[in-house]
Amino acid sequence: MLTRRHWLAAALALGLITPAAAQDAPAKIPVVATFSILGDFVRQVGGDRVAVSTLVGPNGDAHVFQPSPADAKKVAAAKLVFVNGLGFEGWIDRLVKASGTKAKLVVATTGIAPREMAEEEDDHDHDHSKKADAHGHDHDHGGTDPHAWQSVDNAEVYVANIRDALIAADPAGKATYEANAAAYTARLDALDAQVKAAILAIPTERRRIITSHDAFGYFGAAYGMEFIAPQGVSTESEASAKDVARIIRQIKAEKIPAVFMENISDPRLVKRIAAETDAKIGGELYSDALSDDKGPASTYIDMMQNNIRQFSAALSS
Ligand code: ZN
Question: How far is the CA of 215 from the centre of ligand 1 (A)?
């Protein structure tokens, strides 16, 4: 039987492996992140030791994602699968099961206090008896808000959870993961201060905006801004005509200054709302996904900076 040393010698002689590969260069740990923002966090902490694949890519909408067989392969090959949790990836359990993966599932929002959406926030008149029959007590405006990353404080919790999961999976990389997480957290602290300063510079009465879906609740709670959205916390169902009419009335009555488009949503809804009111159209916000490399939001930090630039441009003055 060939010993490991003999096998290496034979493989080197045959040119199957290079001497460098034979000596060191450990294989990167294959991990999956369900969406682009989470993928950026995992890359920041994992550095050179991990190979990150994301399932929902740049400008993709995780709420309505439909995994492909290629996604199942990525999950099957992964050692860790990082998910947001809080109901964001409604498709993940089925995908994990179908893939047959042995990967550990890591919920990156563990320890974050979730925002629960009040079911009766507004005066819409869905037929509750029918809805209750079909879906229990859920409907479009209720449930848990999954968009926890929109507060930078929460992003730091994601980073700590990612660090701990990587150390557990790859103890040899402990010092690297700790150093990467500490350096990135310092950058997030600076970002948090920058976001706070940008919002403080906007007059209080102008810190009220419309977005298409309700993705900025954690941002609003952390930084003191109000977001109103015709769609609920998911993009799965369209806003009803009554919801849109209600928001148009609210914009007019309360003089809400601006409506914003989102990179993952059809811009027609907010354009229609703007056309029927005096609200101006702000720029494009990145809510649930990064931009591609050429766009203004290819990392989480760039994304948050893009969004505060859009708020400042539309709301200051
Ligand atoms: Zn969303």
Answer: 5
| Homologous superfamily assigned to 4-186 | Nitrogenase molybdenum iron protein domain (3.40.50.1980)
Contact between 209 and 228 (Cβ < 8 Å): yes
Task: Output the CA 213–ligand 1 centroid distance in Å.
Answer: 7
Q: Are strands 104-107 and 80-83 parallel, antiparallel or unpaired?
A: parallel
pLDDT bracket for residue 232 (50, 70, 90): confident
Tokens 């990389």 sit on residue: 173
Q: 63 C-alpha to center of ligand 1: Å?
A: 6
- CATH architecture type of domain 200-315: 3-Layer(aba) Sandwich (3.40)
Tell me the residue type at 164: D
* pLDDT the model gives residue 14: 59
For 164-218, what is each residue's pLDDT tens digit? 999 999 999 999 999 999 999 999 999 999 999 999 999 999 999 999 999 999 9
Q: What residues does the ion ligand 1 have nearby, CB within 5 Å?
A: 215, 288
Give distance in angstroms: CA of 18 to centre of ligand 1.
46
| Torsion angle, alpha carbons of 179, 154, 201, 265, to 10 | 110
Query: What are the residue ranges spanned by the domains of the chain?
Result: 4-186, 200-315
CA of 145 to the centre of ligand 1 (A): 8
Residue 314 Cα to ligand 1 midpoint, Å, equals 22
- Residue 19 corresponds to which amino acid? P
Find, among 182, 189, 191, the residue nearest to 160 by Cα. 182
User: Can 4-186 and 200-315 be said to share one CATH topology?
Assistant: yes
Residue 72 has pLDDT above 60, yes or no: yes
Return the percentage of the chain with pLDDT > 90, whole number. 74
What is the distance in A from the centroid of ligand 1 to the CA of 82? 17
Ligand 1 centre distance from Cα of residue 51 (Å): 26
pLDDT tens-digit readout, 286-299: 999 999 999 999 99
Which tokens belong to 116?
């629960």
28-70 per-position pLDDT tens digit = 999 999 999 999 999 999 999 999 999 999 999 999 999 999 9
